[in-house]
């Protein structure tokens, strides 16, 4: 199979879909790999590295799309790429369709095979291709939240770890999934007081077992959320519904109950956000303020640490890329039921139920 790796063109996205090591494995399996010139530079991988691994370097993104049977990338295609995608071409990347009707309609029109990293699902319900980026984003959420709590950044002026004689900052984490646990771990490591909410008692029991005593678990409901937003300095949105739009756990009117300078980091922004006032931002312009509450909702947080993120991503995507290349998408998805759950749009039809539900489309369209 001919596999293409284009340069990411989303704002401040420095990750790349494949490392030279991944290219080496594909070439070893007798596949052809085209890499766009400069695609890996942001992650610390250069054209020579890819050529030594066996890739052919192409000058433009248009050439990569035109000459490849499968595209392996990181972020969803943006408008400039829509017309480059070909009928029956496999596109393997993060899509997060439920948060963008425009993207969804564009991919339906392309009649491509859209396989989404974020919905590939193991038998135990885990999301193996989403997990590493959720780990990165969860840890980064505390780094960014701590920074924007500083007064020059319009935050409350709170040091999360406190100092002797001064109480530590308070962090509220919505969701005890991968993002929430990684955020709680980082915040606890800094010495902050952490409250983590979830509706899954198994997850809360796990958190209670593995976290130190200054990480407190509570059942998630509107009453508890309203109670805690009044006295927590940093709020992390880490709620995920597989393939579907995130629920709004914090509404616009609830912002008035927060203290001025409270910071919200909504990691769920890719799926629409779990705060009503969330809208996607970029690393170039990461925050906005509503009712004196600082909102940080960068849609590609791991893109700020591209070396770590690219390595972590390729570690988990490469086995699936090899299956798709070796077997073709139909055989690979029949053979691997986890990969089959990654099928979102196939030849102009939505085949992932939650996407159709997100836009209230008729079932016939799915």
UniProtKB/TrEMBL annotation:
UniProt xrefs under SUPFAM superfamilies: Formate/glycerate dehydrogenase catalytic domain-like (SSF52283), NAD(P)-binding Rossmann-fold domains (SSF51735)
Positions contributing to substrate binding: 15, 75
Binding site for NAD(+): 134, 198, 203, 220, 239-240, 267-270, 279, 298-301
Signal peptide: none
Domain Alanine dehydrogenase/pyridine nucleotide transhydrogenase N-terminal: 4-137
Keyword NAD: yes
Catalytic activity: L-alanine + NAD(+) + H2O = pyruvate + NH4(+) + NADH + H(+)
Pfam families (alphabetical): AlaDh_PNT_C, AlaDh_PNT_N
GO BP term, example: L-alanine catabolic process
Sorted UniProt keywords: NAD, Nucleotide-binding, Oxidoreductase
Name of the protein in question: Alanine dehydrogenase
Native organism: Flagellimonas allohymeniacidonis
Name of the gene this protein is made from: ald
